[in-house]
Design goal:
Layout: E1 91-93, H1 96-107, E2 117-120, E3 124-125, E4 161-170, E5 173-175, E6 184-187, E7 190-197, E8 200-202, E9 211-214, E10 217-223, E11 226-228, E12 234-235, E13 238-241, E14 250-256, E15 260-261, E16 264-267, E17 270-273, E18 277-283, E19 287-288, E20 291-294, E21 297-300, E22 310-317, E23 321-322, E24 325-328, E25 331-335, E26 348-355, E27 359-360, E28 363-366, E29 369-373, E30 375-382, E31 386-387, E32 390-393, E33 396-400, E34 403-409, E35 413-414, E36 417-420, E37 423-427, E38 430-436, E39 440-441, E40 444-447, E41 450-454, E42 457-464, E43 472-476, E44 482-484, H2 486-489, H3 492-498, E45 502-503, E46 514-515, H4 516-519
Parallel strand pairs: 1-2, 2-4, 3-4, 4-7, 5-8, 6-9, 7-10, 8-11, 9-13, 10-14, 11-15, 12-16, 13-17, 14-18, 15-19, 16-20, 17-21, 18-22, 19-23, 20-24, 21-25, 22-26, 23-27, 24-28, 25-29, 26-30, 27-31, 28-32, 29-33, 30-34, 31-35, 32-36, 33-37, 34-38, 35-39, 36-40, 37-41, 38-42, 41-43, 42-44
Antiparallel strand pairs: 45-46
């Protein structure tokens, strides 16, 4: 299991800066120890002694009250099962009615509960029976379902600490046009360690299964619910990870399996991550939107302000991502939103990213990022097909004033204009250690490596020789790429030629070099 990152605060352009441990290893979909214990393996009783949180736990003196295992009756409990709300004696939640009590006190702005600790002591069933089918479609009679009121809304945020203790929340049903939807609607606190499954979430802006908008932290959560909206900021885990003064905002060690549909700024994990520290996020659910659509996050980085920073380490997508403009396997847009802005600050950093899902769009479509401006990419791989019209590529569709290193593409790329195996267009950047083996098809400015290259500093670029096809559609400003045969590329010598980030393993990637962290 990957180690949790260490986050520290410092001043660097703004009050947010984090550092993640580099000793982490990538997880897979079969890695079940994202949670300390599985909700399906937990045994609950109708009267239990409360437990504290983690290693600092202590027995609670009073008896917990609440009959577990029953579906929600639509009412709200008057109090929690037991506990005093401290870290050693959290408020215990054993029933759906008690979870509804948490929603009520937050919505009522009851200050007595600000910053308190809450913990699930059993799986929670908000509606019994199948709410969605195996394809994520709503199958229950919605007129007979209890509607869930999210914990927090547009006017008030949850400020406490919620520990799901590995339990599940199932049968959640939300169907509204209002904003801030999910199990939590709005949170500036801590949310961790639970699963949402067999649920349907439909809402307006800031809609997700776990939390609509977060300015605190989310970790070790997993979503199997379907999330849909005709509005913006839609994600499987969070709709928006928003900036908070003097506070580190982070989302880590989490997975989305549910189908996600929205309009603009849509992501498998997050719709928009203005400024956050992201570590170990994985998407396995299909993602569909219009503009700024990503397998992990639709947008990564603030629209115009360089003092808002985003760092992402270990992000992987394995599902289809479909949109129109700015569509990517990891991010739809990274860095500045406008290509007219220039400067020297890097506002989005992506380290160790992989895409294994087909990516389909029209303009600015990439296996890793649709479009990026003043970003840094360190270690990225695309293994799937990418289809579009203009600015289409295996790694980034359109890239401006950015630095990249240790990249590879094995997917087939197809478009019409500015189409490349690595970049559709790369302007005024620095790039090194990259190779591409996929087929690249298009009509104009088409290259096996870069469709259109402008004033970019390059080193160690290699491509699989495919007839007379050139590495660049147009190379305006220098840089070279070297052709290799498949036999040459499937070797230890070629991996060493690419640099320390690459390794050779004949059993992986059809014999082509892989990034070292992929083997861990």
């Amino acid at each position: 299991m990957r180690c949790l990152p260490l986050f520290v605060s410092a001043i660097f352009g703004c009050s947010l800066l984090g550092a993640c441990s580099s000793s982490t290893v990538p997880a897979t979909e079969d890695d079940d120890d994202v949670f300390s214990s599985s909700s399906k393996a937990k045994n609950s009783s109708s009267s239990v002694k409360g437990e504290g949180s983690g290693s600092e736990s202590g027995d609670i003196d009073n008896e917990c009250v609440g009959e577990t295992g029953n579906p929600w009756n639509g009412t709200t409990a008057k109090k929690f099962a037991c506990g005093t709300g401290t870290k050693l004696s959290p408020y215990m939640i054993l029933t759906a009615e008690q979870l509804a009590h948490l929603s009520f006190i937050v919505g009522a702005k009851d200050k007595d509960y600000d910053g308190k600790y809450f913990k699930l002591g059993a799986d929670i069933i908000l509606n019994e029976g199948d709410v969605i089918d195996e394809n994520g479609a709503l199958v229950a009679d919605s007129t007979k379902l209890h509607k869930w009121t999210p914990i927090g809304n547009s006017n008030v945020a949850f400020t406490g600490n919620f520990d799901g203790d590995g339990h599940s929340v199932s049968g959640m049903f939300i169907n509204t046009t209002s904003t801030h939807n999910g199990l939590f609607g709005n949170s500036s606190g801590t949310i961790q360690n639970f699963i949402v499954e067999n649920s349907w979430v439909q809402g307006g802006n800031y809609t997700a299964a776990i939390v609509g908008a977060v300015s605190g932290s989310v970790s070790k959560v997993e979503n199997y619910a379907s999330v849909t909206s005709t509005s913006d900021y839609v994600g499987g885990i969070a709709g928006l990870a928003k900036c908070a003064p003097s506070k580190t905002v982070y989302v880590k060690n989490s997975k989305n399996h549910g189908e996600v549909k929205g309009r603009d700024e849509v992501g498998g994990v997050m719709g928009n991550s203005h400024c956050a520290y992201i570590d170990s996020l994985y998407n396995y659910g299909s993602v569909e939107g219009r503009n700024i659509v990503g397998g992990i996050s639709g947008r990564a980085g603030y629209t115009y302000v360089s003092s808002y920073l985003l760092t992402c380490k270990y992000a992987e997508n394995y599902a289809e991502v479909v949109g129109v403009n700015n569509v990517g396997g990891i991010f739809g847009v990274a860095g500045y939103a406008s290509s007219n802005i220039s400067g020297n600050s890097v506002i989005t950093t992506l380290e160790s990213a992989k895409n294994g899902g087909n990516i389909v769009g029209e303009k600015s479509v990439g296996g890793i990022i649709g479009s990026g401006n003043q970003i840094k990419i360190i270690r990225a791989a695309n293994l799937a097909s990418v289809e579009g019209i203009e600015f289409v590529a295996g790694i980034v569709g359109s890239l401006i004033s950015s630095s990249t290193t240790s990249l590879y593409n094995t997917g087939d790329i197809s478009g019409i204009r500015r189409v490349g195996g690595v970049f559709g267009s790369n302007s005024e950047g620095v790039t090194s250690s990259a190779y591409s083996t996929g087929k690249v098809d298009g009509d104009s400015l088409v290259g096996l490596m870069i469709g259109y290259n402008y004033n970019t500093t390059m080193a160690d670029y290699y491509y699989l020789k495919q007839g007379d096809q050139e590495p660049f559609g147009l190379n305006n400003g220098g840089g070279v790429a070297t052709p290799k045969t498949a036999e040459e590329m499937k070797s230890q010598e070629f991996a060493e030629l690419l640099g320390d980030d690459f390794v050779y393993d004949s059993k992986m990637n059809d014999g082509y070099p892989v990034l070292e962290w992929e083997k861990d």
